[in-house]
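Lecture 7 notes: from sequence to structure.

We start with a single chain of 120 residues. Read the sequence below before looking at the structure.
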Amino acid sequence: MQIQDPLTHTFAALADPTRRAMLARLTQGPATVNELAEPFSLSLPTVSRHLKVLEQAGLISKQRAAQSRRCTLEIAPLLEADAWMAPYREFFTTRFDRLDTQLKAIMAARADAAKPKGDQ
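Now the structure, written as tokens:
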């Protein structure tokens, strides 16, 4: 079996919309497995498999309390993913800012061209 780096595990776990929805729920605070399963029409074994993927990626931790298991969001892998994406975010932000500047110049030139010659 090939060992993957933590970032690969994070993005693989985030690739599934059900798992992303579960993480979104956990931003509101810890939840039991049943609470996380509630919005989905999935069997508990399927929900457990999703949670196992999240746990293996380090995105959640589980604590056993009496008869239930509470899941908690772990932010460290998300911070690592965010740090990895930061240069790309900066690259696209710079490009979008330049595009915005160019579009404003084009719109201003069109507005000037549309004015009657006596208003210029």
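The chain is about 65% helix and 10% strand. Keep this in mind for problem set 3.
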